[in-house]
Amino acid sequence: MAKRLLVAVAFWALGGPVGLHHLYLGRDNHALLWMLTLGGFGFGWLWELWMLPGWVAQANHPLEKCYNDPPSFNPVRFLGQALVGIYFGLVALVGLSTLPGFYILALPLAVGLGVHLVSAVGNQTSDLQATLMAAFVTAPIFYGRAVAILPISLTTSVTAQRHRQYRATRATREKLSARLYRLGLAYLAFTTPLAYSAFYNTAATATYVASSIGTVLDWLSAFPSLTGILESVLLLPYHAWKMLGFSGGTFKDWEKVFVFVQSFQSERQRMAYKVLGIHDDATLEEINKSYRELVKLWHPDHNRHQMEEAEKRFIEVQAAYELLMEMRKHKAV
Hints:
The protein is mostly helical. The protein has helices at residues 5-15, 20-24, 28-41, 43-47, 52-60, 75-96, 102-119, 128-138, 149-162, 176-200, 202-219, 224-244, 249-276, 284-298, 307-332; strands at 124-125, 165-166.
């Protein structure tokens, strides 16, 4: 049966964040990805309205054969693989970290499956065995550290890209019931450990989430604007829960996570004032004056005898100034 653009748009509008339009178009891997990330955390769902006409045409006229040449490199797909790999790794850290051999078995498996899921979206796919092998080879190098998620995800993403290929066209289409059954099993496999940990080991889960958030914010500390946006997004559920008047033991445990995010933001602001050598209630003029003096003082061109130290201080001053300017901009709005 031919797919209609109007129907696809309706599914996109009504159930886009859970992938209903992808399910309608036969893009099951994309549907599963959207179910597990709520439409690419909302951003991917909004962007896809522009992609629907092409996907409808592709569903009505699929490729008759696989190309011998691999698909061209797509930086958006590569970034998606890396981010989803990190996301799957964080979820595994929350829900499965108590398992024996977690860092050499469960963690690389979760990251590898996340990367492969993105690589298998649309009419492309990759070599699952090679992707998982890269994850399992990388994992022991960073054994026991949560930061292992990042190198494992990057390694597996590179491997998946090296083995990218077009998906073979199936002669017959599966029944909807079989597709839903498979998607349901995959969804339960992803969410069950997380749900169990969140409800029955709430305090430990909140601790893991807080430490994971801290690691991510540390990675992004060089980009104050991006970090500020991420912090605002992370605090939205907390503000919503407070407005709705939720309380109780479970909420109090999870409240620690959001308190951590707020304290992290306050600590970064305090350090920014310290780097610029000014007091907490400094005026905009004082901030600008201190910034200009320190930039001139620590500019690498003026400190060739201590180049490494100067570059470090110069970057710290730049980051501190950008952070304070961004925070003042948000307050003004």
